Here is the input.
Amino acid sequence: MSKKLTEVSKFLSYMLRHEPEATGLSLDKGGWASVSELIICANKKGYVLDHDLLCSIVHNSDKKRFTISDDGLYIRADQGHSTQQVNICYQEKTPPNILFHGTATRFLASIRGQGLTPQKRHHVHLSFDKDTAFQVGLRYGKPAVLKIKSLSMHELGFKFYQADNGVWLTEQVPYQFIQE
Ligand code: HQG
Here is the structure.
């Protein structure tokens, strides 16, 4: 994705996951915003965005962060929200034996004490493969990849969900299920 598209994509995450109200946008509980309203709100904030550019960002997003509804009228982020406007009802799913979480080494002491907690977002994010987790961890410093005993957690009643883009979600991961 070009630098310009990446910049607009980051602004879309801001609008659709974190601070919709700061841009004048409203989301429903499922996270959906009207495409035409979103284009108006983005333009007001100085982002030159039209329908074609929006579709191009959605289709070229490396992580498939956004979905446009079948009728083309609505858009949402599939996961990663912090805004209280949204409360997506994900379907529960049995996880694989092991999932991975990418973090930074400077968070490990706290994680050893508290396990993984969602911080500002609605869920703890986990990935199926180690490489993705490594890239996630790189965002915050020297990366550390944690192995999560997800199936054991599930067998003890912890709930797991998978967003449409494949990212695994859970409410918390107690330290006993984490292998460094
Ligand atoms: C850490 C990106 C101290 C946690 C990625 C992480 C992902 C703790 C940070 C998605 C902790 C939160 C989410 C504890 C957790 N003490 N630190 N008890 N528990 N942490 O960004 O998982 O590109 O909210 O390890 O690919 O890094 O935006 O979560 O380092 O899928 O689409 O607190 O965001 O996707 O950071 O990333 P984040 P995340 P996008």
Remarks:
- The chain has a mean pLDDT of 96.
- The pocket of HQG is lined by residues 13, 63, 65, 80, 103-104, 107, 110-111, 114, 116-117, 119-121, 125, 136, 140, 167 (CB under 6 Å).
- The chain has six helices and nine strands.
